[in-house]
Every structure is written in C-alpha cells, then in structure tokens.
Request: fold
Amino acid sequence: MTPLKLMVVEIAQLTPSIKKFVFAAANDDALPGWEAGAHLVFELPNGLHNAYSLANDPAERGRYVTAILREAGGKGGSIYMHDDIKVGDVLKVTGPQNNFPIEAAAKKHLLIAGGIGITPLLAMGYRLREMKADYHLHYCSKTAAETAFIDEVKAVFGAHVTFHHDGGDPSKGINLKEVLKSPDAGQNLYFCGPVGLLNAVRDASSHWPEGTVHFELFGSTRSAAEIAALAHEAGDDTFEVECVKSGITVSVPPNKSIMQVLWEHNIEVLYACEEGWCGNCKVGLISGKVDHRDEYLSEKERESAIQVCISRAAPGEKKIVLDI
Ligand code: FES
Reply:
C-alpha cells in the first residue's frame, strides 16, 4: 500500500482527554474512498505506528476525521498526537484499511461503544442511516461532558441511540445481560471500547450465533509481560516461510518475528500494534500448521490467515507457506 501524505486541517478538544483531528490530502491527490469501520495507520515522526479509526461520514470524499484519547500509560503515540501535532503538520499514513466492516447480510445491527470506541461506530451510524437499516447504538461513558461527538451522535443516530453515563462506576452503567439477552434472527453486534467493557460484552454475548459478534480492539487484553512472553517464547524453533507472491523462502529464527524477517527482505507488511491485537499485519495462510498467538483472528479465520507480528509455525512444523 502506498503511503498517503495528510495535512492536519483542524484540531478540536472534544472532551478533557479526547481530541478530534481532521485531515485533508497534503497535495492535489484525491483521498482514497473507504467504508464504515475503516482506520488509518499513522507513521508518527517519533517512530511509532498507531491505528486510528475514521469517524466521519464515509460518503465524504475530501477529508478524514478521527478522535484520539490521550493515554498517559500508553506507548506515547497518543500523547505525541495530543501534545506535538498542530494544524498544518503533514503526516505519513497508510490505509484506509477496514478490519471492522458492517455485515451486509445482517437484518439488524446492535452497536455498543465504550468511550473513544465511538469513532468507527459513528461512521457506521452514517452508513446505517443511509442504508435505512434497523440499528441501535448504546454509547457508554462516564459523564455527558466526557462523551466525544455527543451532538453529532445525537444528530446521526436520532432515536437510535441510548446513552449510558456510569460516573466511573460500571455497576451503574449499561445492563449488558439485559441488552444482549435475546439476539433477534439475523442481528449482528459490533463493539468497540476499552478492555474491561470488551470482556464484559464478550461474556454477555457468548450465546450469540457464531459470526454475528464483531469487535475492534483498541488495546490488548493481555499484560505487557504476557505479550513479551508470547513474542519470544522459550523453546521457539527456527522455521521457514515460503512467500509465494514474492517468490522467496526466508528463515525465521527464535528471536525474530515473521514480520521482522519479512522486512529484512523488503517485503512490506502493514502493521501498528506489533502485539497481535490490531489486525493490521494479517497475511493469507496457504499451508502449514501455525501457533496462533494473536487475539484478533477468529478460529475460522485462523484456517486461512496469520498475524505475522506474533504468530509462528507450530512446534515441529518446519515450513509454512504464506500468500505474500
Ligand atoms: S501489527 Fe497488530 S496484530 Fe500484528
């Protein structure tokens, strides 16, 4: 994917910790089209790669809008965006890429946003309204003042939104058991938000039919120590990766990821988290047994795909074949 150059044309403080960023093309090129649920991967000048979902109407062609939560405990990407980026700056970006699309065959759509997780779901609201679909959003946040895009959400969703303000106490927030109790035939669920709410939504929707529940992760559900252990597990073997499209076979040693070795051979892979949760480094799997260490792919998807930032050949498997 050829990177885009985007210029920051507007920055607005939406809540005490969330800023909205509006981008336009930095040259005369038209911006690539996109669909609701898509995100951009930003190559920040401080070396970090961060993925941010698009929040505006996908029918708009002249600008991209996203919102970013300033995370003091993060890797520094969001702090950089909040503190250093200003109007007029030009950023290198890859995408738009969509790992979180609206399910076209669904008869009903239930959306749950937690905090900053509203960004892709707001874009979905524009699209579902245009489709005249049957949809409803539950939007969870601490207070009205900490609810990003609150006026825009009201305008786009109208009667199709319920706000849940818990004041910081989840026991006073959305009643997930009730909301997710009885999925209607053909209903699909889309969730985006923080890990605690994600796990609660997962638990409360575990009885929904396979393939009807969709998540966009904004962070790992694992601890830093667990991720580090997975990235280089003691006892990992060297194995080969045959790259069919590139026509080469590479060797992956225990101390490197498949993605790192692909980079060394100038094979481009889109990435952001490097921890197995964002979905960006997904590559088609043609053959070979894989030790899937990501938390992004479903069991079904694992039959034909691999997250190359973290997953490896299964123990004893000498070679896997990838569609790259
Ligand atoms: S880079 Fe995020 S899953 Fe691999």
About this structure: Residues 76 and 303 are 34 Å apart (CA to CA). The helical segments are 77-84, 118-131, 150-157, 176-179, 195-204, 224-231, 258-264. The first strand starts at residue 4 and ends at 15.
